[in-house]
Specification:
alpha/beta; two-stranded antiparallel ribbon; 10 helices; about 15% strand
Amino acid sequence: MSKPLEIRRKLVFLYVSLWSLILANPLASQSVPKRMALIVGVNEYKDLSLGNLKTAKNDALGLTKILFSYGSYQKIEALVAEGSKEFTPNRVNILSHFDSLLEETGSEDLFIFYFSGHGIIDYNDKVYLLPEDADPSRPFETGISVESLIAKTREKNLKRVVFLIDACRNPQDGRGEEGKNFLQSVSFKDTEVISIFYSSKLGSPSFEDQKSGYGIFTKYLIYGLEGRADANFNGEVSYSELTTYVISSLKDWSKENQKSQRPYTKEYTEKSEDVILTYAINPKTSLADAPLFNPYNPTYAFRSFLLPGWGQYVRGQEEKGKYFMSAFTVGLLHAGFRYHNYRNAANAYESAVGIPPNPRVGKPNFR
């Protein structure tokens, strides 16, 4: 037998043996639980009586970045008022994205829903979230019931569901004031948690932090998910660690600022165990402390003065900015074309040869 042929047979044997071991390993056939998240932020409401918010969009984008960077989530969908109409936070879009994401989520997967915006309660203390097209005269019909969303997750037999709700739920108070990749292989084992973490209790407003550009509740969510909530220093931030950290931090914040915002959790399972949300990075500069663009910065108005639409484009309203810039450009080109034709006509008139004087033609008498 030739030496090359013998080496080839040994390689084939090793290849077959390796695949036999893999197929015989029961862990190899188990799929790793997925991490899914739907993030919603509503800054501007169509009905002016609701009042616009200043930080809801930043809240949504900030939490999206944290989960994407530190959580190894397989899919994160963010609905904010920018980009495609499909991703604007109206009622139809929120419900359709919620349903479609549920279809992709298995019973062993982790599902997170986050909402920042206005909220309201009915006479039975049930919470309704208000999308951008909510009608204040019919808030329960045009809002989204949190209980109905939870019911949908129960119908899918999901075991790990976390809702993070940063919304003022007292209509009289209005708005108040203005991964690491290793998580991809983490098994949830027998954990089960279906819980809602509200930013404030009934009758208590949710405040906005003018300094950071985030809601106070979401600001401490970001702090916690980045690693400050990792109480046992095991490099992981669990849901129980996050809620404990945020509740404690907001208690201290309320005392320091002489305001009252009291978050709380609502559980939907008798057996509520823990689940890992992110990997504790503890960056030197938190996302919540990093410089954040101010959508009301006067430089945006100055840009729009120089070029209509430029300010909107820079502040994140790309579709609106492109529309105004395109309309202005077309109008400018049309004006230039008309001016060019005018100048050509004027030059032709001035350079035209005049009719020589004729003595038989008398001068006009204007008397």
